[in-house]
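Section 3.1: Structural characterization of target chains.
Under the original work plan, the team committed to producing a structural model for every single-chain target entering the pipeline before any wet-lab resources were allocated. The record below documents one such target. The sequence was received from the expression subgroup and is listed exactly as submitted; it comprises 450 residues.
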Amino acid sequence: MKKIITYGSFDLFHDGHYKILERAKALGDYLIVGVTTEHFDRQRGKLNLVDPIMTRIENVRKTGFADEIIVEDHEGQKIEDIQKYDIDTFVLGSDWTGKFDYLKQYCNVVYLERTPNISSTFLRHDRMRLIKLGIIGTGRVAKRFFSEINYVSGIEAVAAYNPNFDDLSAFLQNYTVTGFCDDFESFLESVDAVYVASPNETHADYVRTALEAGKHVLCEKPMTFTYDEAVELYKLAKQNHVVLMEGIRAAYLPGFQQLLTVAKNGTIGEICDVQACFTRIGDANSREMSDAKYGGAFMEYGSYTLLPIFKIFGLEYESLHIDSILGESGIDRFTKVEFKYKNGLATSRTGAGVKSEGQLVIGGTKGYILAQSPWWLIRSFDVRYEDADKVDHYEAGFVGIDGFRYEIAEFLTKINGTGGHDYKLTAEESIAMAKVVEEFMDIRKRRQGL
């Protein structure tokens, strides 16, 4: 008897789950299905599970394909189960290709092609539906995003759009989604929401078109280059009853939210100063290092450094001053933005091709908060005092790559209306950032003689 085993959360059970189980069963005589516990899913970084485990087990049972259902609750259990049940073949979807090759020393490993454009046929009407997401742009950021969306339950990437056929084709060789190259309308019709990861100068137009089509939108920063356009886009989202969210990932990290709580609860006294720095020596041919019109240090990293300033001091600054050092290509290699508030000062420093200490420092009358580089992927921070021997250390949870997982989870909770009051990054804060971007671009154009 040939034994097959497969594992999964099987949350919000849908047609893709059904077909994986059907095809796994067809590979042998006896199918064992492992259903993960909520605790184990959280440990491995999977967010936003909706269904309790007994519901997920029952949905698997009702397919009729599973000869035996077991519960997966700890790391290393797959190896144990393969040996315990004398498994011939381990099966999983193609999203995990290569991830479990280490099991080949114990049994055959088969990755089944994922079903594109899965339907929600198997979802009950009294539950949240599975959100089908399309990715606009197929560059480096989109690839990292795609690898993380599998860890957020209730949303799945099903389509990709890129007007450049060669770039789209290269992306589709590694990711199982439906590709669209010259029919943006059909792309939008195939999804419920979009993630905009195209070049900076195309963001606003893609966002506008998607909102007009009634799609929820998560857009990479900067979403737009002007204050008026930012106001317009958020107004359009509200009119169409859809979510519009700017992808400044630091805003959604547990550690950043914890840092803001400590900053505002009086631990360091009255806050007088915020200094945020983000610099990187990158590829000289990359967009941020070579595009003098839409790239450069501030366009690439400024949203991150503005974030803690606006979250702590608010949006009503009295004045701001922008200085930049331009490189040979005309990009800003280093930009400093200084804000003056009624009772505080703040500095944003960004560099592309320049390296400085990339830390976040929040100074108060009783002490200061120090978040070391890379604070935009914050895992820990310290509160320090006049007494150098006194240091309060804070640790925060962090899973995944570059914070995408938390950003996607936040986007999904907004779509489902389960996130409560919008506070991690508000529309007003996003609009205020666009206002600073607009002023920066005006200054840079004058410096470039345009």
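The longest strand covers residues 271-280.
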